[in-house]
Amino acid sequence: MLKKLMTSAAMLLVAALQPLCAQETRQVTDDLGRTVDVPLHPERVASLHDTSITVALLELGVIPVGSHGRTTNEGDAHIRSGKLMSGMDFDNSDIAFLGNSPADIEKVAAVKPDLILTTTWQNADVDQLAAIAPTYVFDLGKSDDFEIYAKIAELIGKEDVLKYLDARYQSQLQQIRDTVDVENTKVAIIQGYKGELLVWNTYGSLGKVLRDAGFEFPEIVNNISGGERQSFSGEYLPQFDADIIFITYRPQRGETPQSAADEMAKILPSWCDALTACKNGNIVYLPRSETTAATYDSLGMMAYTIIGQTAGRSAPQSQ
Questions:
Q1: How far apart are CA 61 and CA 153, in angstroms?
Q2: What is the rounded CA–CA span in Å between residue 126 and residue 33?
């Protein structure tokens, strides 16, 4: 009888504690203006954007229970920049593939998340996601990747990690400024695509490092608002001339520096003659995933790439 009473008491105690556990949340307002009760200490985070959320989680030391991903032509799923930035992907971790866009709602529910992080780019229905777990939506039109990164760190309680990552980044920026005359070095990042020139005001991690370090950009680039992308015809190409021009390509799609140059030729066959940077051999071709990944490791890679490509250009060269 005593044992039965003790068991009942234990069950009542557990029942009494459950609401307290459920109350361990805090209210935040996401980028859509929605009030979201997020757990104080989320343990099962689902990410619905690989490059903007998943790689940041991994760098902050949190392995999501599931992630949005891309598929190859053969149907193989992968986290863009996952292995490049963290060594992790779907094929060598317990991270579940949740689909592309829209994400697979049933797969999201199956991983039993206690927090879902998604963006306005993702087409999965927010109400359906919110029925599974608290869902925080980032508006990619309002916040850049590293503003999102900072908010992710806050939501998962990793501000201390972010503090040290940012301190490292500030040191890397200072090293660039100590080495390169940034204020008198003009740079541009351009990309040929289907006969048009695509240009962003600030292109990924590469653009962030260049701007944060203090490099000069062509006026036509500065006139592109915020994180927006703008396309231009070939007649505008000379306005993007600079001391050094960066062009990216995607090895994952079989692209090479030559194919990136071929795309430029589709805009203007004599594109190299239109740019003094090209005539002087100052075009730098870089693989795109590294230049766009929203991680502090990527910022560091870009910082040292920039030093390597810009420092010492006025120093004596071997004959």
A1: 10
A2: 13
- Decide if 116 contacts 46 (C-beta within 8 A): yes
Q: Give 143's pLDDT tier (boundaries 50, 70, 90).
A: confident
Q: What is the pLDDT of residue 314?
A: 55
pTM value is: 0.84
Query: What is the average pLDDT across 28-38?
Result: 97
Q: What is 213-251 written as a DSSP string?
A: HT-B--HHHHTS-TT-EEEE-GGGGGGG--SEEEEEE-G
What is the dihedral sign for C-alpha 68, 73, 75, 78?
Answer: negative
Tokens of 116: 């879902």
**Phi, psi torsion values for 112, nearest 5 degrees:** 50, 60
C-alpha to C-alpha distance for 286 and 262, rounded to whole angstroms = 15
The answer on pLDDT for 269 being more than 50 is: yes
* Cβ proximity of 155 and 136 under 8 Å: yes
Listed residue (259, 239, 240, 236) closest to 249, CA to CA: 259
Distance from the first to the final alpha carbon of the chain: 97
Go through 155-193 and write b for each residue having 16 or more CB atoms within 10 A of its CB, e for each that does not. bbebeebbeebbeebeebbeebeeebebeebbbbbbbbe
Q: How many CB atoms lie within 10 A of CB 20?
A: 8
3-12 contact pairs (CB < 8 A, 24+): none
Start-end of H helices in the chain: 2-22, 55-59, 82-85, 105-110, 126-132, 145-155, 159-179, 204-213, 219-222, 257-267, 276-279, 288-292, 296-310
Residue 186, helix vs strand vs coil: strand
